[in-house]
Design a protein that fits this description.
Elements (H helix, E strand, L loop, with lengths): L5 E2 L2 H9 L17 H14 L7 E2 L3 H8 L3 H13 L3 E4 L3 E4 L24 E2 L11 H12 L1 H4 L10 H13 L9 E5 H13 L5 E6 L3 H9 L3 E6 L9 H10 L4 E4 L13 H14 L2 E5 L27 E6 L1 H5 L4 E5 L2 H10 L9 H13 L1 H27 L13 E5 L5 H11 L1 E2 L15 E5 L4 H20 L14
Parallel strand pairs: 1-2, 5-14, 7-8, 7-9, 9-10, 10-11
Antiparallel strand pairs: 3-4, 6-12, 11-12, 13-15
The chain binds pyridoxal-5'-phosphate (PLP).
The site of pyridoxal-5'-phosphate (PLP) has 15 residues, from helix 8.
């Protein structure tokens, strides 16, 4: 990493260091207390690996941290020196010091390719946070689409902005949620991925900074990297209690990102939900910095608990859609196989996105658009979502119960919605657990896939996609993987057990 892209202040770093669990600071196997510089270096290292201090964040000057953390300047200097020697800090005269992760084995940062369902065999695939279609609504939606298709058969079938009937239905849905929306503010896309890809192509150039939640959805991070963006991670607030608005303000002011990408509704991977106040302040911060705020609502419909009250959508604080571009999708609410997503933004942004579409995928399939329009028009959408929610809730409770029984030292916050649980793996490497799990017949994505530059080594993400005995078996295999990692047993020696669902 050549330079820093964000900064952590002395008071903020001292607060983060104090908030760490004191048990993590104990020397391995008990024994004598660690020297002060070593505890400080270990504390910073853990903050980086857990993504609470982003990689490439400029650390405060030694003198400032010494004052804020109430230690001597020599202690800070020795801690910085140790971090530098271990590859967790880089420095350049005149530019200060910034966090890093050691070079070496490249950590997995790309998304995890889903196993084709028919190839899963004995493997329990927890790589993909998506559920089967909520029948009978898929069949009914396609039947509705077939009935409407003859109306379109005589046209050329190219609708780069989306079918008028679907744009209207999606606009009406925003209006019903309290944000008046015209069809001219909607473009239908090939899933949320297609939406974010189109926005990136239009609104950023290679080399430009894009601020992202840290952690964030792995495939979008990779999409942005591939588009040449320089990702600037902004850590979620402590204990996943939401968005750290002062940190966002600081990044938007200091790094001046062209764009920011936020999943405010049942965030993937943590399941966090931004409060209305956080939403308002995020939009204010973006507006004052001139940063385009891209808000991904893919998970928004998957509210699994009555509490808390659902906050208003982020675009409620910029209804015209000139600062906030909203991305939505039918993939989680209904079925990923539809590949239908959308963008809500100001009409001129939509016009530019539509014009640029001539050079990418030209449009989305008419039949699938008709299917979603038919669901929205007949009330089937709401009923399908109810099925989804029930299933996701049961799966969530099953995986949480199995973890509590079999891996009691793994920590997580049970989210009120979404499809994912973000799990701290009891001090073990999530990447090693994922490797061992693969050999024991359970596939999980490790934490670093959801981070920028190697953060979150101590996490895995578990989706709400399996229930009952399958969830229990999946966690039993993870517990087996954790044992192998903890004891340093070579994973090849272990045989994969056949799985019968
Ligand atoms: C936050 C988020 N955005 C986008 C996607 C991908 O959505 P789509 O299937 O609509 O492309 C996902 C899928 O898990 C997601 O969680």
């Amino acid at each position: 990493m050549a330079q820093w892209t964000s900064a952590v202040g002395a008071t903020q770093l001292a607060r983060l260091l104090r908030s760490q669990d004191p048990r993590d600071a104990e020397p391995p196997g008990g024994g004598r207390r660690l020297p002060a510089y070593r505890s400080l270096a270990d504390g910073v290292r853990r903050l980086v690996l857990e993504g609470r201090v982003p990689v490439a964040a400029r650390l405060p000057a030694e003198r400032e941290l010494a004052a804020a953390h109430a230690v001597s300047r020599t202690t800070v200097a020795a801690a910085y020196e140790a971090l530098r020697a271990e590859g967790f800090l880089e420095s350049r005269r005149g530019s200060g010091s910034w966090t890093a992760v050691p070079a070496g084995n490249p950590l997995p940062t790309r998304g995890l390719e889903p196993l084709p369902p028919e190839a899963a065999g004995s493997m329990i695939d927890l790589g993909c946070a998506a559920l089967p279609a909520p029948e009978p609504w898929l069949t009914r939606a396609v039947q509705g689409a077939m009935a409407d298709l003859p109306l379109y058969a005589h046209t050329h079938g190219d609708y780069p902005a989306g079918l008028p009937v679907l744009r209207q239905a999606l606009a009406d849905r925003y209006t019903a949620r309290g944000i008046p929306t015209m069809p001219e503010q909607i473009m239908v896309t090939t899933g949320a991925m297609g939406a974010v890809a189109a926005i990136c192509r239009l609104c950023t150039s290679p080399g430009e900074r894009v601020a992202v939640d840290s952690p964030s959805y792995a495939n979008i991070l990779q999409l942005m990297r591939d588009a040449g963006a320089r990702l600037v991670p902004v850590a979620l607030a402590e204990r996943l209690t939401g968005w750290d608005i002062p940190a966002w303000r600081q990044v938007m002011r200091d790094a001046a990102p062209r764009m920011a990408y936020v999943v405010a509704d049942f965030h993937n991977p943590t399941g966090s939900l931004a409060t209305e106040d956080q939403r308002r302040r995020l939009v204010d911060a973006a507006r004052s910095a001139g940063t385009l705020l891209v808000v991904d609502e893919t998970m928004a419909e998957l509210r699994l608990d009555e509490d808390p009250e659902p906050p208003r959508p982020v675009c409620a604080f910029d209804p015209a859609g000139s600062s906030v571009i909203t991305v939505g999708s039918a993939s989680k609410a209904f079925w990923a196989g539809m590949r239908i997503g959308w963008v809500r933004a100001a009409p001129d942004i939509i016009r530019s996105l539509v014009a640029a579409r001539a050079y990418s995928d030209l449009g989305s399939p008419v039949l699938e658009q008709l299917a979603i329009a038919s669901l929205l028009g007949t009330g089937g959408w709401e009923q399908a979502i109810e099925i989804r929610r029930r299933e996701a809730r049961e799966n969530r409770d099953a995986i949480v119960g199995a973890l509590q029984r079999r891996l009691p030292d793994w920590e997580f916050t049970v989210p009120h919605g979404g499809l994912t649980l973000w799990v701290r793996t009891g001090g073990l490497s999530g990447s090693r657990i994922a490797e061992a799990g693969e050999r024991l017949g359970v596939r999980v994505p490790s934490g670093p896939r959801f981070g920028v530059d190697g953060a979150f080594e101590g996490f895995v993400r578990l989706p709400f996609t399996v229930a009952g005995a399958v969830a229990d078996e999946a966690v039993a295999r993870l517990a087996g993987a954790a044992r192998l990692v903890a004891t340093g047993t070579p994973v090849e020696a272990e045989l994969r057990t056949p799985f019968v669902a």
